[in-house]
Each structure stands twice: as structure tokens, then as C-alpha cells.
Amino acid sequence: MDNAQPLEEEVYDMSGACLALILCVTKAREGSKADLAALERMFQKLGFESTMKRDPTAQQFQEELDKFREAMESRTDPISCAFVVLMAHGSEGLLKGEDEQMVELDDLFEVLNNKNCRALRAKPKVYIVQACRGEQRDPGETISGDEIRMIIKESPKTIPTYTDALHIYSTVEGYISYRHDKNGSYFIQTLVDVFTELKGPILELLTEVTRRMAEGEIVQEGKARKVNPEIQSTLRKQLYLQ
Q: Transferase among the record's keywords (predicted)?
């Protein structure tokens, strides 16, 4: 007899303000304007207050995130959730600013963690990173996957510094991220379609993003390529955007 009990669903409170910061290098990144338009449409539909900065330098990536945090800390109304969208050329762990200088992703992620941003303490922080993470190209393989279930016990008095964060990368470590020079990036366009068309917990929506991208095919230099996003989550509860 199976005596396993179903998990009791806990959800993040989304009744407060939902904010988004979009930092996008458009220089030498044809198609990025289509991504920006799609993201603006998505955040508007989801009821997010969004701020956009085009062509930030490496230093401005950091400065704009600091300003974003300071603006949240100075608000008197409650904040429920924050999205940060980072779009640029890059390599593993790095983004290239408009000035061709590099900024470390870990430094950007640190700004809003539970230690450094009181306004978002125990609140969901979602990072969307549209950037290459290397030069490898995936021709595709016949694959099968296993589901891994993890249950994390939470303390009633304290929370870890790095919980309540969701990092969504447009590609896996070491691989190229594809962008069409007119239609925008495969990842951003698919993500916007799923987030605006469907309802459900964000991790289920991201599974659908991954499925759609995995079923698609990109032709580059006459060769078929495959690409899929990578999701890293320390969320403690279910996050519903709609």
C-alpha cells in the first residue's frame, strides 16, 4: 500500500507590487529590439512595473541593479516579486557591456539576495539571462531524462541567504545562444509566448519553454542545431505570475 502523502502547496504572495528591470545591449545584437518589444508586452500583461535600460556599459549593469534595489528599499508599499532581464553578448559567468568590458553575473546576482536586499527578503527574484555561455554548438542527440525530486526543509526563524531565486539561462553552460536578426532570440520569444499564453507555477511554465525549444530546430551555417534553456531554482514555494 502506498502511504505517501501529497505535498501541501505553498505559494508566494503576489498581492503586492511586481517589478521588472530590463538591461539590454543592442549594439551588434540584431533582433534584440524584437525581444525588448516582446518583454514589454509580457510584463504589461502580467501587471509588472518595468524599467528598461538600453546599451549599458559593464559598470552600468551594476549601477542599474544597485539603483533598482535602492528604489525598492525606499518604497512604502509591499513588493511581492522582481524580475531582472539581462541581455548581452557573453561567456560563462560573464556579460559584455556596450563598452566591450565584462561584468560578472555573480556580482549582479548578489545585489538582490536575501542578505543585501531587505525589500525582497523571502520574496521571489527571477533572473532571465539571454547571452551565450560559450562557443559550443549542439547538433542534437537522442536523449532520455530522469526526474529528480528534492524536498527542502525550511527553518521557521531564518532563511538561507540564497533562497527564493530563480536563474533562467537561454542556453546551457559552454554553449551558444541563438538570436534571429529580425525576429529576436529563440529563447525570449518562446518564453514570452508561454508566459502570456498559459497559466500555472513558473517552473511548470519553464518546463513547457524547454519542451518547445527542444522540439524546435535552428539552422546555422547550413547545419541543424538544437538549443535549450537551463533553469536553476532555489524557490521555496510555488510562484504564479497570473
A: no
Is 167 one of the catalytic residues?
A: no
Question: Distance between CA atoms of 5 and 22, rounded to whole angstroms?
Answer: 41
CATH of region 17-139+159-233, choose from 3.40.50.1460, 3.40.640.10, 3.20.20.70, 3.10.450.350: 3.40.50.1460
H helical segments located in the chain: 32-46, 58-74, 105-110, 186-197, 202-215
- The grid cell for 190 is 518562446
Sequence ranges of the domains in the chain: 17-139+159-233
Is there a catalytic annotation at residue 132? Answer: yes
Element (H, E) at 75: none
Taken in order 217, 218, 219, 224, the sign of the CA dihedral is negative
Copy the grid coordinates of residue 105.
Answer: 553575473
pTM (two decimals): 0.86
Q: What is the pLDDT of residues 84-142, one digit of tens each?
A: 999 999 999 999 999 999 999 999 999 999 999 999 999 999 999 999 998 998 786 54
**Three-class SS state of 173:** coil
Q: Which residues of 57-77 are buried (b: 16+ CB within 10 A; e: fewer)?
A: bbebbbebbeebbeebeeeee
Q: Exposed/middle/buried for 43, CB within 10 Å: 0-12, 13-18, 19+?
A: buried
Of 18, 24, 117, 132, which residue is the catalytic one? 132
The rounded distance, in Å, linking the Cα atoms of 196 and 204 is 14
